[in-house]
Amino acid sequence: MKVIEMRSVTLLFVASVSSLSTWGLCQATAPQIELVTAWTIEQASIDQFEKMVTTAHGKRDKEVAQLISPFHLTQRLSQARFEKLNSELPGKQSRQALLAMADESAFLDLPSTDLLSRPVPSRSIQGQILLRASEFVAGTISKMPDFIATRTTTRFQDVKETFLPEEPTVVANRRFRIIDRTVATAVFRNGKEIDQATNENKPGKDISAKTGLDSWGEFGPLLGVVVTNLLNGKIAWIHWEPTADGPAAVFRFEVSEDKSNYTVRYCCDRIGGSRKRITLTPAYHGEIAVNPVTGAVLRIALMTDLKPDVVLKRADTVIEYGPVDIGGHTHICPIKSASISTENPQVIKGIPDSISWLGPRIIAINDVEFDHYHQFRGEVRIVPDNYAP
Q1: I want to staple 327 with a disulfide (CB 3.0 to 4.6 A). Which of 68, 299, 359, 375 is the partner?
Q2: What distance in Å separates the CA atoms of residue 83 and residue 86, rounded to the nearest whole number?
Q3: What is the pLDDT of residues 130-172, one digit of tens each?
Q4: Could you tell me if residue 385 is inside a domain?
Q5: Does residue 46 belong to any structural domain of this protein?
Q6: Could you please report the per-residue DSSP string of 197-224?
Q7: Are strands 264-269 and 212-213 parallel, antiparallel or unpaired?
Q8: Share of the chain above pLDDT 90, in %
Q9: In this structure, is residue 193 part of a structural domain?
Q10: Which domain covers residue 316, as residue numbers?
Q11: How many domains does the chain divide into?
Q12: Is the pTM of this model over 0.90?
């Protein structure tokens, strides 16, 4: 196995082994330990990061991207703050780095200064809000018209993989890099959604183009699963927070594995050199933000509680919803989603017991934007037999 060093900061261990590795089947060679380097990660609050971006004004796009890439936010970057920072950055590379950073932070708490100062509702009112959310979700799928929308998926990864039959190669790189961007037409018809690929800026001839978490159910089915599970799970009030659709009541919830119907689909489990898609139904917890008046779900974050013996260490998803016009009527539909997955370090045969680190752990982010909603319908025109255009 080749390992190509990009920047020297922190020492890690990777092994070239005789039988199998995390990356697939290798040629038969004697075990060999190589030193590999990786980037250190700097932590920053939202205020600290915003000040840093301000001091970078006037620098070139590539320089700003390199400056902000190593940072890990300790608080969630709101959409309003993201848009402001994005407008201040000089170009494509720095904006891509900001997007990956914002998606990674999507599962954290907002800064206290971003929360709304409103009285905590009584338990009775909290119950009414949750009841409205349940009614909203129950009516969403049945009342949703057939429509099409554009789904743009940008995939980031902190380790670059190249799959070659003779010699898999791993490249340790900076925090996150774009793997590819795919545009698809999402068709929602008869309560089901289907993706039809229309364009991909990187054809993805190697197997990595089909790896990662599958995104599903954003247009309603996923909400139905989660809200049904919540009726049998634990739920508690957190706070009020601002959204583009007004104040949202935010609740935290937990669903045990025996009551979970939430499925995680991932490619691929590579134990033994083979590649197999996996489907899990784990316990999970998260947050749900609800419009207190209409019951519309405006944001939902799902964090899985995975068992230690599965290929995934983390598989989390967040979806943001908002009003869109479809056929002259307003509907609450997904605007954006982000998912983050982390593979478990896998046991590699032939490595001495003294080495506890068992291989690179890939962190992958899928950023998805939904736009260009249109009602899906056919047009029929009846003309006489003798009609001449």
Answers
A1: 375
A2: 5
A3: 999 999 998 877 778 889 999 999 999 886 555 444 444 455 5
A4: no
A5: no
A6: EEEESS---SGGGG-EEPP--TTTHHHH
A7: antiparallel
A8: 47
A9: yes
A10: 117-159+185-345+368-375
A11: 1
A12: no
